[in-house]
Amino acid sequence: MGDSKIFDQKYDECLSQMKEIDFAKRADILGGQYKDHSLIFSFFNRRIKVTKDGISDIDNRDLTFAIKFLLCQYIILCPEKLPAKSSKLVTFREFKDSGPLFSRFTSNTNKIIETSFSGDLAKLEKQCLELDGMIMESASYDLTMRFKALHRIPIILNFNDRDDLMPATAGFLYHGDAQQYLDLECLSITCTYLTGQLIN
Predict the structure, then answer these.
(1) pLDDT digit string (tens) for 119-135?
(2) Which one-letter DSSP state was computed for residue 103?
(3) Which residues contact 29 (CB under 8 A, 6 or more apart)?
(4) CB 66, CB 189: distance < 8 Å
(5) Domain end: 76, 100, 131, which one?
(6) Same domain, 133 and 35
């Protein structure tokens, strides 16, 4: 079964769970706005509307089932109270039980960024800015960008371009509290989506 079919099924299951959820109680914790029985929030540079019947892009741009599933999970997994905010930055590999997913995560994110933008730092910066990325000062990297995947899920992209001695390298960082809001599968999807948008 293809990934699309799998996420289609998972999305349908999530919609059933969401019918029992009080959006109004979760809006502030998730950084969203409750209006007319709907929950409105941002996903990267997109505005998302969530109702009990489904998830849509306010500008009518397509959403894959994987992204719809991720957004459902953000609502379903919402903690009852706002957790303490973590300023610690961690790699995907540092999350508990991430081992089985790490190889695929790296293949779908870091390695694609490295091969796509090696020798083209300016293009990567331009693509990042178009996705509302914010430049961060860094003495260790040629480019460090901060994205807001979701209100409670910021993502940092670090990139060093190739030089005479070393190939290009890329890496993503999350805040240590990210697993309070999304499971590992959905955290992986955030960076896979971002990577896809950057190379388009």
Answers:
(1) 999 999 999 999 999 99
(2) H
(3) 78, 79, 81, 82, 152
(4) yes
(5) 76
(6) no
